[in-house]
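Appendix B. Extra example for self-study. Work through it before the problem class; the solution is given directly after the inputs so you can check yourself.
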Amino acid sequence: MSTRAVVSTASADPRTGGMRSGAVRRWSRWAEPALVVLALAACWQAVSVLDVLPREDFPPVTAILQALVSDLQTSELWAAVGASMEAWVLGMLVVVSIGVPVGMLLGASSISYRMSYLTLEFVRTIPGIAALPILLFIYGIGQDLTVSFVVLAALWPLLIQAMYGMRDVDPVAIETAKVYGVGHIRRVLLVDLPSCLPYLSTGLRLSGTFALIFAIATSLIVGGEGLGAEMARAAVVGDRPLLYARVLLTGLIGLVVALGLTTLERRTLRWHVSQRGAQS
Amino acid sequence: MIKKLIGPATSLAAPVTLVAAWWILSAGSTSPYFLPLSDIVDGFQQTWTTERMEDDLLPTVRALGVGFAVAVVTGIATGVALGLSARARRDLRPITEFLRSMPVVALVPIGLVVLGPGQRMEAALVAFAATWPILVSTSDGVRAADRVMIDTARVYGVSARRRLLRVTIPAAMPQVMAGVRIAVAAAVGTVIVANMLASSSGLGYLVISAQQSFDIQETWSGLLMIGLVGSVLTCTVVLAERVLLGWHRQYRSLERTAP
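Solution. Structure tokens for the complete assembly:
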């Protein structure tokens, strides 16, 4: 979609041909968005310094960045980031090892699919946050709580996608494999799994972003070790620039996770029939 | 006729069995945390007196409703604008991607600091959390609206405004509603977290304070109510979808082929 925009800006000016159009293209692809970001940061800075909005509550960008840089040099912050990411990774491992097989199993037969899909679609809309107090009774504050909460909240999207994926396996491919005498386990590995892959990677992206939210929410609400607890601490102390810096860092981590999972999704989708037409 | 009845029956079988299994298996439960379901239901009735509903349920539902309404309006409006302009989409992409992937709970401390505790802060956070899913899928839907239809309308001299209202936006409606549906979960989750962290009343507050005073029955009652609020909001959105999209070709065929 960005290429379409670029083509239209380049062709709007017929004098920019050859070498220059490449430069123009690169310029408008990177520089304009970058300028927008800078302009917004400048606006914030001005609003804060001129006290249009209370400076106390909206610290200037420079102060936030300063707080971020000095915060990044403390080991406490890295320990907190480490704890949150560890909970995320462990939670996602459990989510994948439960969600994929159970989802594929439920999707494998049309009876189990029909029986479960409405229930599951419904379960996924129930806010997982509701389970936190009960989990808190069971595990107390700590990494166990965070991981189990992450699993409970992030399991559903992947499981449901795995189920949909199995419904979409080409029956001809299965029959062909059967005719050629491919055994059951090999059939799952060679036919079912690859054709589910696009669904699985979409589910992984959805689950991954959920998991991150809940990994951070847990320590924010109940304390313990993690990015959420660090934010709560900065808020309690009343250090606004530090609070903004930690929220900014959390946003950046969220962005990295989201971009990573989207890239993974595109990679795994590239070979798939549904994408081949779109690529060319 | 029989087929019509079997469809819902099979999809209702699983939830009914699950609840029944929960009821039977938990009946003799002596675990302090997993109460028998009958006790939970009793507790639910005891907890949710009219007074309690006014004090704890209503503020949460109000913040949720106001925030969600704001999100729907801003999400659709901004989404349409971004969907129409490739340049705006590209230039704002770093901002939208950043705000969209921001774990929304991270904004609760800032909301608390800037707006103070209360319904205003809760509604603002709900609005923020629910806007992004709606915005993103609206802009996708508008972008994917059928070119041929739009060009046909243009050739027939339909004005730009009418083209937008009568062709582009209706064409994008299925995606808009898909975004709204995703936004429900985000909105309910956010209001509960804000409640848990920063309020002296409300559903989240009730659950977390019941937890802290080890009142297990009340914790379960609050939990059940949160589930109920989420379900009611989801059902409302699904109903709205039926009404708004009943005419839509793709939607109708989807309904028909849905297993």
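Self-check: The domain at 68-279 of chain A is CATH 1.10.3720.10 (MetI-like fold). If your reasoning did not lead you there, revisit section 3.
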